[in-house]
Amino acid sequence: MTRATRIRHHLMRAAAAACAALGTIGAIGLGLQATSATARAEEGQRQCQAGIENYITETPWTNTLFNVEALHEQSTGKGVTVAIIDSGVSVDNPHLVDAIVEGTSYVPDDDSHGKQDVYNHGTIVAGIIGARRINGSSLVGIAPDAKIMPIRVFEALRQENGQTTGGPDMFTIAEGIRYAVDHGADVINISMSDTHDVPVVKEAVAYADDHGTLVVASAGNRLTSSSTVDGMRYPAAYPQVVGVSAVTNELLSTEDAIHGTQVDVVAPGANVASTIPSGIDCAFSDGSSTSYATAFVSGQAALIAERYPDETPAQWKQRILATANRAHPDERDDEYGWGVIDPIASLNVALSDDIRGPSAEGGAARLQADQTTERVTLVPLHDPNALAKRIVMLMTIATVVICATAWLYSLRRRDNADSTQA
Fold this sequence. Notes:
Rossmann fold
């Protein structure tokens, strides 16, 4: 065997080994994300087990997104009451002990006045809005001094024969809206939606608006809806309501979110930190993403209501929509509405007629010329495994090139051999 032949022989063996390793490398690359996701899920499950006291110590990504330290120097929601029409709110979480005021319950044989939650949903929403700071936890609500009024309209959702049951009817939600208004709520959070335009709900929303209360509602979730098709959802679609959809920490629409003309703005709805019963913090994925996003906007509304108590609900809504971050100031779409909410900017606008974007009663809004507070720069958080995945991808590409080169070289040798034999 000549030296050139030996070199070719070793190259072929190396190429064959590389090609054999290709499947392994691909498997590692595919497994990287799965393993990481599994680890996060297992950690989240451990962290969310009822009865295990555990506090989130890392800064939630939403705190960074909205620069809550600077935000809370301007407003904390003090003196504002946010009614939460939901599954109730647990009073045994230390973040919420001082936040909850008297509410009511429409659940039969329940005298908890809304201060009970076996489903967790209402307590999660409450924490996003008004969780108080406590030692050992980095969790804090978007409006940490707002009061929470729990209005319990259902106990728990259940899956029966492929159908979701146990939820509230729209008539009960309408009653809850009127109760909240009559008992002093400034903002009403409804992290629920329905495909039906029910007159009593429409009338209740108008009643709230007439009495100075802003309603914020979910634009719809696929996983908890009887219809997964994009389209109108109520009460989010009513003109007095702020309709909210959800985005991930990459500021992309969550898979769970319903889209349509009812979407006014979007807010975080994935990997969100909040409270659950049993006195612990928890991190949630996007299973009820617009529910969580709605809570962020209700918290923002509470901040605005403290800062501008003499404005109308329409003007509060205008601040939220006009200051949302979007690529094109004059355009909205059914997926993101007018953009990602910007609480700091919404506190620092002067109502005027020369804004680009949504118009509303009371004029439009623009940043004050003498305002020194900078708007939030929204920076999406990227996949922590991105570098490793890129390395795997490059290794895979290199291996494919080696395999292809070896294969072509083999074909060329075979053709030469055939020519010689001929």
